[in-house]
Amino acid sequence: MVNSTEKSKQQLRSYYRQARRSLSNSEQQQAEAKLLEQLLSSGTLDNQRHIAVYLSQDGEISCQALINWCWHNKVHTYLPVLNPHKAGYLLFLPYTKETKMKNNQYQILEPVFDPQSAIDLDALSLMLMPLVAFDLAGNRLGMGGGFYDRTLSQKLAKNSPSTRPFPLLCGVAHDCQQAQRIETQSWDVPVDKIITPSTVINNAL
Ligand SMILES: Nc1nc2c(c(=O)[nH]1)N(C=O)[C@@H](CNc1ccc(C(=O)N[C@@H](CCC(=O)O)C(=O)O)cc1)CN2
Ligand SMILES: Nc1ncnc2c1ncn2[C@@H]1O[C@H](COP(=O)(O)OP(=O)(O)OP(=O)(O)O)[C@@H](O)[C@H]1O
Fold first, then answer.
1. Which domain covers residue 148, as residue numbers?
2. Does residue 2 lie in a domain region?
3. Structural domain count of the chain
4. Alpha-carbon distance 45 to 48, whole Å?
5. Backbone phi, then psi, for 79, in 5-degree steps?
6. CATH number for position 26
7. Relative to the CA of 54, which ligand 1 atom is closest?
8. Ligand 1 center to residue 163 CA distance, Å?
9. 36 partner at 20 to 30 Å CA-CA among 49, 125, 131, 153?
10. Domain membership flag for residue 1
11. So what's the pLDDT on residue 164?
12. 61 in Cβ contact with 90 (< 8 Å)
């Protein structure tokens, strides 16, 4: 049975996914460049050595400018990979120019599965998380698979937000993905900040 929160979350998802898909190529390119500027000017990239990014799909704001910056500055980048041995969970695998890639079940490119090269969550210093929608209180809505929530809950949920060490969780989205209010549920892992091309929301957890 779908309760009212689930139903309204589905409606929000469909609305904000459509909104981000409607952006033009030039709006997307400007957003990608401004996202990198915001990450730099907010200090979010200071001293970061191991960053989880994603390859954009479905109108998501692109991390490509950030990825290029990381590679130029010798910062290690990682991509989420659906864990074939643990349904619903992600692993984070290194992403370089040489990484062999394949499409996952959602037609998103990911590194070819190799559990041995997966980085431990604690070793990531920053994780960029693609948002479908967010609100000014710093609540986020994802694609609805619970992949990030489940994966992060393995290590982070037990620690209080103020004591959890790594990674810094940073949701990223287009400005048009800002919603009035996103309801949170018990399993939602809060992000530390949300960055858009024109806003930085620091979550006072
Ligand atoms: N770029 C990117 N990579 C990511 C995520 C993401 O949100 N964005 N993920 C974040 O979790 C994970 C993949 N999760 C996803 C969850 C749902 C759908 C999706 O498109 N669902 C379709 C149904 C597709 C189908 O069942 O075949 C839909 O809801 O319309 C895609 C990715 C890992 N990689
Ligand atoms: N820690 C967890 N353990 C088990 N199930 C979970 C956990 N976290 C989330 N889920 C399940 O995942 C489903 C989707 O959760 P939710 O709607 O919060 O997704 P989301 O936040 O949009 O996705 P994501 O975390 O991938 O960005 C829910 O049905 C929820 O029960």
1. 9-202
2. no
3. 1
4. 5
5. -120, 150
6. 3.40.50.10420
7. 1
8. 30
9. 153
10. no
11. 54
12. no
- Backbone Cα Rg of the chain: 16
Q: What is the pLDDT of residue 142?
A: 98
* Partners of residue 204 on adjacent β-strands: none
Q: Quick one: DSSP state of residue 51?
A: E
Judge whether 4 lies within some domain.
no
- Catalogue the E-assigned strands of the chain: 50-52, 76-82, 90-94, 101-103, 109-111, 126-130, 133-134, 140-141, 168-172, 193-195, 200-202
Mean pLDDT by groups of 10 residues along the chain of 205 residues? 73 98 98 98 97 98 98 98 97 98 98 95 96 96 97 72 73 97 92 96 82
Q: Is 108 in the pocket of ligand 1 (CB under 6 A)?
A: yes
Question: Is 89 touching ligand 1 by the criterion CB < 6 Å?
Answer: no
**Residue to mutate, 14, 109, 143, 148, ligand 1, most ligand atoms under 8 Å from C-beta:** 143
Which residue CA neighbors atom 12 of ligand 2 most closely? 146
Interface predicted TM-score (ipTM): 0.95
